[in-house]
Amino acid sequence: MGSRPPQDHGGNRREALAAWGLDRLLDFSASINPLGQPAGLRDDLVAGWDDTLHYPDRGAPGFVAAVSRAWALPVERLLAGNGSAELFDLVLRGLAPRRLVLCPPDFGLYEGLVPAGLPVVRVPRAEAEGFAVDRAALAETIAEGDLVLFSNPANPAGCAASRRDLRALRTCCEERGAILAVDEAFADFCPAESVLSEVSFGGGLLVFRSLTKFFGIPGLRLGFLAAAPALVRRAAALQVPWSVGALAQRAGVFCLSQEGWAERTLACVARAREALRCGLAAIPGFRPLPSQANYLLVELSRPAPSAADLYERLARRGILLRHCGSFGLGERYVRVAVRTEEENEALLEAVRKLDG
Asked: What is the pLDDT of residues 248-304, one digit of tens each?
């Protein structure tokens, strides 16, 4: 029997398998498209395998061009990265803001990448409103030189600020000499609220995007930054050469060319998410919060077990959840990815069978 490994991120499958002595598991801790990857991606990468005999193209021009076409953004406003994590680091160092304003609970890597000496101001999300961004409190906080950074949809809550509200926050930032940075890692799952297309208007907005969740390629590490050209140049000057590998670049071009993928994914996730939400809500002590993403934040209360207890008891049965302690939510919340309908039903059945 193992003991619960610390969770600072979902998807630590090998660690969990070793900790619990398992041969296989259902992973609800990492929120990846339940459809997996677009058909033909594997074959396309195999066809491009000889590219690995050479250095990848610096700056990933083919991928950047594909992003430019997909969202009608000028290439000078785009920077490819080895996943969003690299891009967070480049922006924090390249922009050198006076303060970093965060909205917890949120993705923990933001704080993990804060450069030494950079003050951090925390404006908590409104728990009573499903952990929505507290726009009024932000408006009172924002000052000249600030970088305001939060995820939308929220991670781990799943709620999404509207495009209208984000525009108002951007205006507030611009009026005060601050910059709004929106992490849209899961925005493909609620595209109506994305502000990516608005990066071309002025310099007060920057957007981080990831391809890993929506296209099922977290192991390849691929994302991009959309921002004012001057900031893109500053971030690019700090980027190590060849940070985006050849196969990742090729995968990005392929994925962005797939017609119908978005429609199939959104239909699948909406149907599976609602069934999972209803199933969890019917279990005493489980309260799933409204979500526009491919995961649900679930509040636990008696007679449900604590987050740690639930995590461990399900892990012993080969089902991995996301304990939300690292988000600052203690033992009251877990995050559950939306998987296939069959996998979701297996999770619900396992939870129903828990005693006490």
From this structure: 999 999 999 999 999 999 999 999 999 999 999 999 999 999 999 999 999 999 999
Spans of all domains in the chain: 13-37+261-352, 41-256
DSSP states of 87-133: HHHHHHHHH--SEEEE-SSS-THHHHTPPTT--EEE---BGGGTSB-
pLDDT single digits (tens) 288-298: 999 999 999 99
Residue among 335, 310, 340 nearest 324 (CA)? 335
DSSP 150: E
- pTM for the full predicted model: 0.94
What fold characterizes domain 41-256?
A: Aspartate Aminotransferase; domain 2 (3.40.640)
What confidence category does residue 11 fall into, taking pLDDT thresholds of 50, 70 and 90?
low
Torsion-angle region of residue 319: left (phi > 0), alpha (psi -120 to 50) or beta? beta
Class assignment of domain 13-37+261-352?
alpha beta
